[in-house]
Design goal:
The protein has about 150 residues and is of the alpha/beta class. It has four helices and eight strands; from the N terminus they run βαβαβββαβαββ. Strands 3-4-2-5-6-1-7-8 form an eight-stranded mixed β-sheet, with helices on both faces. Strand 5, helix 3 and strand 6 form a beta-alpha-beta unit.
Length: about 150
């Protein structure tokens, strides 16, 4: 079963953290799916990914296009057509334990200033670790990312 990393966002905005994680994921050679719940969020992320990379282009696309399967990063609300090895969850989107088992890594990014988002992440942690997934909880509260908790899975 793959690993799940939970990122508790309290300082950097979602777009900044996402861009960093996408860059590292692509350097690792992973195909990535970013799963959200709403078109509004995915539209916002799509726009930011076109604007943000000051040092170059970050290749990505929105699901529903003719070339979904070829996208290194695919923004989607559903199962991704690009055969991802990494799944990034935003906006409270979730993954099943079976999906986690098929990935190299699943990342859950949640807004630490939103009590509903924090509660949703807690429920995901409980569900996924309960199903045997190894998980790590990362916090940026101190000003840099630090691992605060770890569950070895089953």
């Amino acid at each position: 079963m793959g690993e799940v990393y939970f990122y508790h966002l309290t300082r950097a905005p979602l777009e900044v953290t996402l861009l960093t994680l996408l860059g590292k994921s692509l350097q690792t050679g992973w195909q990535v799916a970013v799963r959200g719940r709403t078109d509004a969020m995915l539209d916002r992320l799509d726009e930011q990914l076109w604007l943000r990379p000051e040092d170059g282009f970050l290749p990505h696309g929105r699901s529903g296009g003719a070339h979904d399967s070829a996208q290194p990063v695919l923004l989607t609300k559903d199962k991704a057509a690009n055969d991802p090895t990494c799944l990034i969850l935003v906006e409270g989107a979730d993954a099943t334990p079976e999906e986690v088992g098929q990935m190299e890594r699943v990342m859950v990014l949640f807004d630490g200033h939103d009590p509903a988002a924090v509660q949703s992440a807690r429920e995901q942690w409980k569900t996924l670790t309960g199903a045997g997934a190894a998980a790590k909880y990362w916090s940026e509260e101190s000003g840099r990312w630090e691992m605060k908790a770890e569950s070895g899975g089953g």
